């Protein structure tokens, strides 16, 4: 949880993030300007895709099985192979990004939508590809 105050420009910003599961995180941000009374609320989430090995698939417990806290924290997490990020703002704008990795190539595909735009909802589309040796 963070809170930032900039008294010279009258900006107050507060954010909160929580890791809800080994595969997801949720966050919210609120911005407010004391001089213009403009505010914005943004809610977002991340969903992580992890590579599962044969051992992990076999060790997935049945729905009726209860795990202790030690068993939950002792699990070894595999590296993240992809992340889906999404956000929705109070100004009726949305953003989606998929970040993935294939060997030494990291790629991102994203779009920003504005539902109040008269010329069409798609505001921008982007693609980024990075290679590291």
Order of helices and strands: EEEEHHEEEE
Radius of gyration: 20 Å
Tell me the overall shape: globular
Q: DSSP strand (E) fraction?
A: over 45%
Number of domains: 1
Poorly predicted regions are none
- Indicate the structural class: mainly beta
Number of strands: 8
* CATH level-3 fold name: Porin
CATH second-level architecture: Beta Barrel
Query: Could you report the average pLDDT, rounded to the nearest whole number?
Result: 85
Arrangement of strands in the largest sheet: 1-2-3-4-5-6-7-8
Biggest sheet architecture: 8 strands, antiparallel
CATH superfamily: Porin
Q: State the end-to-end distance.
A: 36 Å
What's the CATH class label?
Answer: Mainly Beta
Helix content: under 10%
Q: How many distinct helices?
A: 2
